[in-house]
Design goal:
It is built from 29 helices and 17 strands. By secondary structure, the protein is α+β, with helices and mostly antiparallel strands. It folds into three domains: 240 residues, Aldehyde Ferredoxin Oxidoreductase,  A, domain 1; 211 residues, Aldehyde Ferredoxin Oxidoreductase Protein, subunit A, domain 2, CATH 1.10.569.10; 193 residues, Orthogonal Bundle (Aldehyde Ferredoxin Oxidoreductase Protein, subunit A, domain 3). Strands 1-9-8-13-10-11-12 form a seven-stranded mixed β-sheet. The protein has a six-stranded mixed β-sheet with strand order 3-2-7-4-5-6, with helices on both faces. Strands 14-15 form a two-stranded antiparallel ribbon. It is globular. It is an enzyme of class 1 (oxidoreductase). Keywords: 4Fe-4S, Iron, Iron-sulfur, Metal-binding, Oxidoreductase.
Length: 718
């Protein structure tokens, strides 16, 4: 059946017509609210308070969600919302990396607010269609599509009985269905989940953009925290937006010359330095695979080790030379000359429902190569690409899948689980066939895949209760925190990065703080106070990208010449000033670099209070599994015995000679756990929080977010 016949079978459930309006200084000043339970669509005003306190993007998502749920709301309650917003800078075409959307919901994995950033065209096209945010609440009875036509000024909820579920097919079907011509396809963006969203808690969302050179629909992922699972629980098959007429001044900025000046400067830097710095235009984020391996930071065998002799088999040059299509401007939004959205074209699938088909695989990103590959002991580039493809089309978070599989493999090798429990899967490290079958089972909701798809936190509980596993051991090796699986960096030798993972609001994701090189390699933050300052500044600065619809890569993956003489080179001060300039250029405001950080502090502290409201967000929730801080097993210790013995001597004045490895592990552990607690103390103090991690009343007052309902949440703990 062709797509036009499928469209005829759609049942219109609701239609809303609106005046197109005009964006002013980055804002449409309204958001689109859709209630699927009631088939209700309406426009809501974006207030001056929202713009002042929450800016946009993630900030708008947090505010809308706060007002939609209570402390008792669960992720699968109809009251839970999915909010998508780009922010005031989203959609500009002059400065690289301005096509991001931020998605906010209550996470199935953590029970807390999760936010995830994603490229593709949806966020900017949503804004140009007249909406600063899309707020979806309720649940449909049957699968539906929400279609927004930004030129006609219509929004429709349509029942959709016939379309596919898996994202690479559904994205193509809906792009063709709603485009009026081949040329019009680039004006369409689709958001989908995939079949795994119906069966796992680690579902992701795919946001499409049409690649006019490949004549193919490409996918970018909002991956973390199970957002795709919420999407499918609401019976949403897809969101579709269509807008024709993208151009550089649609945000109607206050002073476009400021934006142009900053953009031209960065485009020149990218052209001059990318090939000799990070090679984003050649390989994307996978450029750091061999760098992580060299510095003992690549997670191997469930984060036991930081390097492996076979890592060269999945090094970036392997993907460049054999798989990734070169010479294409792979930007996921107009005007991004960094062009890091790489892809392997005509890749033949070897397993599963699409066996024998030639597909385009987006990536691999570093996280996918490290998590799907090295962390599971699988050093096979074709496995990495195939599992990357299936994670995307099924709608499975590649980071969670890689970390979950690595955990399962260690449990299997430790005898906690066996073939009887796994349904015959020999899940030892390096077994690509078993890992691939686990992935297919997750998507089908079958076998051991259904168990693994619930995430590490729930598996730990199951393994303890049903199989008699040692709870302390599972807590040590289960690489999750707050319920979210760790992203793919080994932080054992970086106390700051341990804090960068443990002290996040949403769980261990590196988009808040990636301090591992500053701390471990460059030794730029030696004291607790230095680390605490870094764990204040960088999470706040990175939060700002998520308020404004920006990608972080142009900030620090291109280093300008001025950085060689900068006072604080880790901050890339020239680029910080660029962001100040483009914000002022769009909005007409006059912020400086200090106000930029204050904007993020407001939202960051509000999210911390939101966590407290949901029953978490205190010191006990910021604990980390010990493997992220030090060696758990004898094998781990002895793999780096010279390093660890030397540390015992130099740091503790402890003589390791003749001591059993178990005794040395115990001594080192006590020291490292004490160091982490001292770091927590220092960070809380710097952030203006109590010793239990609660934002102080004076902190909320200073930031201007001491709303009565916010104060009510924190008062019992002060």
């Amino acid at each position: 059946m062709n797509v036009k016949e499928m469209l005829k079978e759609h049942k219109l459930l609701a239609e809303f017509r609106y005046e197109l309006g005009q964006i002013e200084r980055g804002y449409t000043n309204r958001s689109l609210y859709v209630n699927l339970s009631e088939h209700r669509i309406e426009s809501k005003p974006v207030t001056e308070m929202m713009k002042e306190k929450f800016i946009g993007g993630k900030g708008f998502g947090l505010w809308y969600l706060w007002n939609a749920v209570t402390s008792e709301t669960k992720w699968n309650d109809p009251e839970n919302e999915i909010i998508i917003s780009s922010g005031p800078l989203g959609g500009i075409t002059q400065y690289p990396g301005a096509g991001k959307s931020l998605v906010v919901t209550l996470s199935p994995l953590t029970g807390l607010v999760i936010d995830s950033n994603v490229g593709g065209y949806f966020g900017p096209l949503l804004k140009f269609s007249g909406w600063d945010a899309l707020e979806i609440q309720g649940k449909a009875d049957k699968d539906v599509i929400i279609f927004i036509d930004g030129n006609e000024g219509t929004v429709r909820i349509e029942e959709t009985p016939l379309e596919a579920t898996d994202s690479h097919i559904l994205g193509e079907q809906l792009t063709e269905m709603y485009a009026e011509s081949e040329e019009d396809k680039r004006n369409i963006s689709v958001v989908t989940a995939g079949s795994a969203g119906d069966h796992t808690l680690i579902g992701l969302l795919n946001f499409t953009f049409y690649d006019v050179r490949r004549k193919a629909v490409r996918l970018k992922q909002a991956g973390r925290g199970g957002i795709g699972t919420v999407f499918r629980d609401k019976k949403i098959k897809a969101l579709v937006v269509r807008f024709r007429g993208v151009k550089g001044d649609l945000n109607h900025p206050a002073d476009i010359s400021k934006i142009n000046k900053a953009g031209i400067k960065l485009h020149k830097e990218i052209n001059k330095f990318d090939a000799v710095q990070n090679r984003m235009r050649q390989i994307g984020t996978a450029n750091i695979i061999e760098v992580m391996n060299e510095y003992d930071l690549l997670p191997v065998h469930n984060y036991k080790f930081g390097s492996h002799p076979d890592a060269d088999k999945i090094a970036s040059n392997v993907f460049v030379e054999k798989y990734i299509t070169q010479g294409l401007p792979d930007g996921c939004w107009y005007g991004c000359s960094l062009s890091c959205a790489k892809a392997a074209d005509k890749f033949e699938i070897k397993t599963g429902p699409y066996k024998g088909q030639l597909v385009t695989v987006d990536g691999p990103e570093y996280e996918n190569a490290a998590g799907l590959g090295a962390n599971c002991g699988i050093f096979d580039p074709e496995y990495i690409l195939e599992s990357n493809f299936y994670c995307d089309t099924y709608g499975i978070d590649t980071i969670s899948f890689g970390t979950i599989t690595a955990f399962v493999m260690e449990c299997y090798e430790s005898g906690i689980i066996n073939k009887e429990i796994t349904g015959g899967l020999a899940l030892y490290f390096g077994n690509a066939d078993a890992a691939m079958e686990l992935l297919h089972q997750m998507a089908r909701g079958e076998g051991f895949g259904k168990i693994a798809g619930q995430g590490i936190r729930r598996m730990k509980k199951l393994f303890i209760e049903q199989y008699g596993a040692d709870p302390d051991f599972l807590q040590d090796i289960g690489m999750e925190q707050k319920g979210l699986e760790y992203s793919e960096y080994l932080p054992k030798e970086s106390l700051a990065q341990q804090g960068g993972y443990g002290l996040t609001n949403k769980g261990p994701q590196h988009d808040e703080a990636w301090l591992i090189f500053m701390d471990m390699v460059n030794n730029q933050i030696p004291t607790f106070e230095d680390k605490a300052e870094a764990l204040h500044y960088f999470p706040m600065f990175r939060t700002w990208f998520g308020l404004n619809g920006l990608c972080k890569l142009p900030w620090n993956d291109i280093i300008p010449e001025s950085n060689a003489t900068a006072d604080e080179p880790a901050k890339i001060p020239e680029h910080v000033q660029n962001y100040v300039d483009i914000f002022n250029g769009v909005t007409g405001k006059n912020i400086d670099k200090e106000e930029l950080i204050l904007q993020s502090e407001r939202v960051y502290n509000f999210q911390r209070v939101f966590n407290i409201r949901m029953g978490h967000g205190k010191r006990e929730d910021d604990k980390i599994p010990y493997r992220s801080a030090g060696p758990v097993t004898v094998e781990e210790y002895e793999s780096r015995q010279e390093r660890y013995d030397r540390q015992l001597i130099e740091l503790l004045n402890y003589n390791p000679e003749g001591k059993a490895t178990e005794e040395k592990i115990k001594v080192l552990r006590k020291y490292r756990e004490e160091q982490y607690e001292k770091l927590v103390d220092a960070v809380y103090k710097r952030r203006g929080w109590t010793n239990n991690g609660i934002p102080k009343l004076e902190t909320l007052q200073k930031l201007g977010i001491d709303f009565p309902e916010v104060v009510e949440v924190v008062k019992p703990y002060l």
